[in-house]
Amino acid sequence: MYNLVLLAARPPEWTHERFIAWWRGEHAELTRHLPGLRSWRHTDIDAALEPRSEGWDGVSVLSFDTAEDLRKALQSSEWAAAVAQVGDMRGRRIAVMGGEMEMYGG
């Protein structure tokens, strides 16, 4: 799998609950249609392990078969629609991409 991982924080005027409801609802309705998307996992962050990790609301992992499949998704009209919906929300995010390796499958 090749993943797009997004760590996001809500806009300052939104509550955590509103942001998660939007991300898993309205925003998901657009995002889930990305071409080549194989799976999508979302974590609602409710606690930070340490102070330097505070201030984040959620993590999304969008999985594709290959890096090329992700690149195609990022060039799609579906991606453009999802980005347009976010608009100038003023939240924060970190977005990274990379290959996945399962380290433990318990």
From TrEMBL:
Database matches in SUPFAM superfamilies: Dimeric alpha+beta barrel
Pfam families: EthD
Domain (EthD): residue spans on this chain: 12-84
Domain of life per record: Bacteria
Annotated protein name in UniProt: EthD family reductase
